[in-house]
């Protein structure tokens, strides 16, 4: 186990390197970077058209630079750190990232680490609450489906699970907004934001109510879009245990079905479900959160990354990418370790797993 963990930890370094390298190359060739945007703003301020100005250099790499002098373009490139070759910029970025220094946002004028720290509580609260609710819904539902496999309840809920599994969470989010947040029907919940404008003036009890009032629709959307997979996992985990020999032996001793289920089967069947928690968190944080935060305008890491992509705010893009990738790799490692702790028959070291 120790050797396997060491290998996985060492593999995090080249994985992060290649992910950052690929994305660095992509953003370098993508049009509309911060230098081009700054040039366009400077042209608009000076009243120069993008195609005007006979004194402009026609050999400039930036199309928007045709109306500005070479000196002005050089100052703008230096302001955003584009006055050096791409390999040099990438190397400097790697050295900074080794000490978790992600630089300063081009457009928000704040250190990226500060921005990530400010947005983290929103994403964490959304992810943790939704994970808790998904487990509270999926585990009892999966157990009941396992006990009534092939019966009416199992067949009728399977249709709902198929819909929840196939339809993304953001589709449910849009539907909830249309029906319950000022769309064509009811206006029971706020359209966006995590708290009301007068949140600071509320009492602590009203603050709690206001917080959950704003979180209701995002959490419902994430639970509906994420409970199906865990329900199936719980169901088939319990069905596998119910067919084992020790269950038949317990029943032959005259134990009640509830005693057999919760005294013997539950502990063994839940091991695989608990071990899958880190994997579930990856999907919730890095897929569900992103779209939910954008749709409901929740000021978290997902919305921050989305806005950074729109603005070509490269320090924020790479900072959020680095954080998401690192968290994802660590959570997957934790998931693998839990599997081996729960089931000693799984031995990654003996299989030479990488």
Automatic annotation (TrEMBL):
UniProt keywords, alphabetically: Cell membrane, Membrane, Transmembrane, Transmembrane helix, Transport
Protein location: Cell membrane
InterPro entries named among the record's database cross-references: MetI-like, MetI-like_sf
Signal peptide start and end residues: none
Pfam family, one: BPD_transp_1
GO biological process: microcin transport; transmembrane transport
Residues covered by the ABC transmembrane type-1 domain: 120-335
Membrane protein topology class: Multi-pass membrane protein
Cellular component terms (Gene Ontology): plasma membrane
Chief location of this protein within or outside the cell: membrane
Protein name per Swiss-Prot or TrEMBL: Microcin C transport system permease protein
């Amino acid at each position: 186990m120790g050797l396997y963990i060491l290998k996985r930890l060492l593999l995090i370094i080249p994985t992060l390197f290649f992910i950052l390298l690929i994305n660095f190359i992509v953003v370098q060739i993508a049009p509309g970077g911060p230098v081009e945007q700054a040039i366009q703003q400077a042209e608009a301020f000076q009243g120069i058209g993008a195609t005007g100005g006979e004194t402009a250099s026609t050999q400039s790499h930036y199309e928007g630079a045709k109306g500005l002098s070479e000196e002005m373009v050089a100052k703008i490139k230096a302001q955003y750190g584009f006055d050096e070759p791409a390999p040099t910029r990438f190397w400097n970025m790697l050295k900074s990232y080794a000490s978790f220094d992600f630089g300063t946002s081009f457009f928000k004028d704040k250190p990226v680490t500060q921005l990530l720290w400010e947005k983290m509580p929103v994403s964490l609260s959304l992810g943790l609450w939704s994970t808790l609710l998904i487990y509270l819904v999926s585990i009892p539902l999966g157990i009941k489906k396992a006990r009534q496999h092939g019966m009416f309840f199992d067949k009728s809920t399977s249709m709902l699970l198929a819909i929840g599994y196939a339809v993304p969470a953001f589709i449910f989010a849009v539907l909830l907004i249309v029906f319950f947040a000022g769309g064509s029907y009811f206006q029971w919940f706020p359209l966006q934001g995590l708290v009301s404008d007068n949140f600071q003036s509320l009492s602590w009890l009203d603050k709690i109510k206001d917080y959950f009032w704003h979180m209701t629709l995002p959490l419902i959307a994430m639970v509906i879009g994420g409970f199906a997979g865990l329900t199936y996992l719980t169901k088939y985990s319990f069905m596998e245990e119910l067919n084992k020999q020790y269950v038949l032996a317990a029943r032959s001793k005259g134990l009640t079905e509830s005693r057999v289920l919760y005294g013997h089967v539950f502990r063994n069947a839940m091991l695989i479900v608990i071990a899958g928690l880190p994997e579930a968190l990856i999907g919730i944080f890095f897929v569900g959160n992103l779209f939910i935060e954008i749709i409901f305008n929740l000021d978290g890491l997902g919305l921050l990354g989305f806005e950074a992509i729109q603005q070509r705010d490269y320090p924020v893009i790479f900072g959020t990418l680095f954080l998401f990738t690192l968290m994802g790799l660590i959570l997957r490692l934790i998931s693998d370790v839990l599997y081996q702790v729960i089931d000693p028959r799984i031995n990654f070291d003996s299989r030479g797993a990488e």
